[in-house]
Write a structure and sequence with these properties.
It is a single chain. This protein is 59% helix and 0% strand. The longest helix is centred in the middle third of the chain and has 16 residues. The radius of gyration is 21 Å and the shape is extended.
Length: 125
C-alpha cells in the first residue's frame, strides 16, 4: 500500500490497489505508468474552458475595483440557477471528479479511526 501511495503521489496517476497483481514485473508496471502518463487528455469541455476564462478574468481584477460590488451576488445567482437545472441541492457542491470516499478515508485514517469505521460498518450503520 505504501508503494502504491508513493506511486500515486509521485506520478499523479490513480494507481489501483491491484496494480502489482495486474502488472507483476517492474517492466510491466513501468510500461503501464508510462502509458497512463503519456495518454493524451481528452478535449476540454467548452463550458469548463469558459469557466477557466472567467476565473482568470476575476483573478485579474484588483480588490476594491469600482463597479464590482454585485459580482459575487451575480455569481451566487448563477450557481443557484445551475443547481436548480442540474438537481444539485443548494448549499452543496458536487465533488470535482470521481471520488472514492472510502479509499480517501482509509488511506489517511489513524488506527483508532479505522477501528471506529469498522465498528460503524463503514458508515452504513
Amino acid at each position: 500500500m505504501r508503494f502504491r501511495n508513493a506511486l500515486c503521489e509521485a506520478t499523479g496517476v490513480a494507481v489501483p490497489p491491484t496494480a502489482v497483481f495486474d502488472h507483476p514485473t517492474p517492466d510491466e508496471l513501468a510500461a503501464h505508468l508510462d502509458a497512463e502518463l503519456s495518454a493524451a487528455p481528452g478535449p476540454p469541455s467548452p463550458l469548463l474552458a469558459e469557466l477557466d476564462r472567467l476565473a482568470a478574468l476575476l483573478a485579474a481584477v484588483p480588490p476594491g475595483t469600482a463597479g464590482t460590488e454585485g459580482v459575487g451576488r451575480r455569481l451566487d445567482e448563477l450557481l443557484r440557477g445551475w443547481d436548480r437545472r442540474t438537481g444539485t441541492p443548494e448549499g452543496t457542491a458536487p465533488p470535482p471528479g470521481p471520488v472514492d470516499d472510502t479509499a480517501t478515508v482509509t488511506e489517511t485514517a489513524t488506527a483508532d479511526e479505522l477501528f471506529a469505521l469498522l465498528d460503524n460498518d463503514f458508515g452504513n450503520a
